[in-house]
Design brief:
The chain is mostly helical. The protein has two domains: 78 residues, no CATH class; 114 residues. It is 67% helix and 3% strand. The chain has seven helices and two strands, in the order E-H-H-E-H-H-H-H-H. Strands 1-2 form a two-stranded antiparallel ribbon. The chain is rod-shaped.
């Protein structure tokens, strides 16, 4: 929606609007009057500029601009011309732009999620299997059922702690390469950009030197690339 947008009222835009104010319809001219008073407003609604642009493209507006003294080009009052050198809604604070994620990075993250789910399932099975194995093995020691159950819970608790520690270690080791990979991609992109700029500068320099040699010796032609 452009109805709630404001445009920075720069000096050149204010001069452009003031030069055409007397040619505008009365209602639109009255709307512009408040933007020429002191203290000068710093913003102007987008809709006001849009109304001026629409009027300049109408038959009456185009005729009024061309018959003015001095004549004015209606194209100078298009939205592209009016918005040139201005800022849209400078009073607002827009969020920072976030670069889209690399498809390879997204696929790698999905693989890590699947591995994490598999690891958790294996841990649960290990805890349950260890507890059941301890409970089943303790029956040969002649223990009562209460002690066998406590022993199975104890073994399962110990295995759960061990699995949790191993999972945290695994997660910390797999999260670090992700940041390194992202940093390496960014450095590689900057390196390629710098290399491209250097190559273009070399080519431009060689071409300029060849042109200078040709001017010094008209018989010498520029070697084809």
């Amino acid at each position: 929606m452009t109805s709630d947008l404001n445009i920075s009222l720069e000096d050149h835009l204010r001069d452009t609007l003031s030069s055409v104010q007397r040619l505008l319809p009365c209602e639109l001219s009255a709307q512009l009057q408040i933007y020429f008073t002191q203290p000068k407003p710093a913003l102007i609604p987008y809709t006001v500029l849009q109304s001026v642009s629409q009027w300049s493209r109408s038959p009456s507006g185009s005729s009024a601009l061309r018959s003015a003294t001095p004549p004015r080009d209606p194209n100078n009052f298009s939205m592209v011309s009016l918005l040139a050198g201005t800022t849209t809604s400078p009073e607002r604070k827009f969020g920072s732009y976030v670069l889209p994620r690399d498809p390879e990075e997204i696929e790698a993250e999905r693989k890590r999620e699947r591995r994490a789910i598999t690891t958790l399932m294996n841990a649960l099975l290990s805890v349950g299997g260890s507890g059941f194995a301890a409970w089943w093995a303790s029956q040969h020691a002649g223990w009562k059922k209460e002690w066998r159950a406590l022993f199975g819970l104890f073994v399962g608790f110990v295995v759960a702690i061990a699995e949790a520690v191993l999972y945290l270690i695994w997660k910390s080791r797999h999260s670090a390469p992700t940041k390194k990979t992202r940093r390496r991609h960014q450095e590689s992109a900057r390196h390629k950009k710098n290399e491209g700029d250097g190559d273009s500068s070399i080519v431009e320099t060689e071409y300029s030197e060849a042109r200078l040699r040709r001017r010094g010796n008209p018989d010498q032609s520029i070697p084809s690339e």
